[in-house]
Write a structure and sequence with these properties.
This protein has seven helices and six strands; from the N terminus they run E-H-E-H-H-E-H-E-H-E-E-H-H. By secondary structure, it is α/β, with parallel strands linked by helices. Strands 1, 2, 3, 4, 5 and 6 form a six-stranded parallel beta sheet that branches. Its cofactor is FMN; [4Fe-4S] cluster.
Length: 190
């Protein structure tokens, strides 16, 4: 299964990255740190509606979008800033408008890390992204409690949830990629 892990944390060695990499260690895949790429915000020009592609020539268009289109699953991780996802995560989400309908039935997983307040809002924003794209949401999401660098290692519940998310993505991948048995195909109502 082809899985991509998107980190919306601007910090190096962030708590968000830590949890994403735990899920990656269980399910495999590719890690992308948005802060390492040149990603402009959506300009709401709506040119993508006419052209079928984004007109902004940056790393989001040239590297990240082609990667998303090739994946079976996308795991998005974000720190919680002002009770929501980071600016990097939000820019990523907005820039996928040009590929709406093309992520349908891919698997989505959410990971957020914050002090306490805003965790639910950030999870909701990521899961809303998955639902807008008609993706399959793996579970309710992983919520880590941390602030200082490395503090996430104390949150064993979040670490275990990140592992379970990896297992769930693998489970859904098997279901998603499994062909229907002949007896179900032959007995469908017409």
């Amino acid at each position: 299964m082809n899985i991509v892990y998107i980190s919306g944390s601007p910090r190096k060695n962030s708590n968000t990255d830590y949890l994403l990499k735990i899920t990656l260690s269980v399910a495999g895949g590719q890690f992308i740190k948005l802060a390492d790429y040149r990603i402009e915000p959506c300009k709401s020009c709506r040119a993508c509606q006419k052209l079928g592609k984004c007109v902004i020539d940056d790393d989001m268009y040239n590297i990240i979008i082609p990667t998303l289109l090739k994946t079976d699953a996308i795991v998005i991780g974000s720190p919680v800033y002002f009770n929501n996802v980071s600016a990097q995560t939000k820019a990523f989400i907005d820039r996928t408008w040009c590929i709406r309908g093309r992520l349908r039935n891919k698997i989505g997983g959410a990971i957020v890390v914050g002090r306490r307040y805003g965790i639910e809002s950030a999870i909701t924003a990521i899961n809303a992204f998955f639902l807008k794209h008609e993706m399959i949401v793996a579970n309710r999401g992983v919520c880590g409690i941390a602030f200082e660098e490395g503090e996430i290692i104390k949150d064993t519940e979040a670490i275990n949830a990140a592992k379970k998310l990896g297992e769930r993505i693998k489970e859904l991948g098997k279901i998603r990629l499994k062909p229907e048995p002949d007896h179900l195909i032959n007995n469908k109502c017409h």
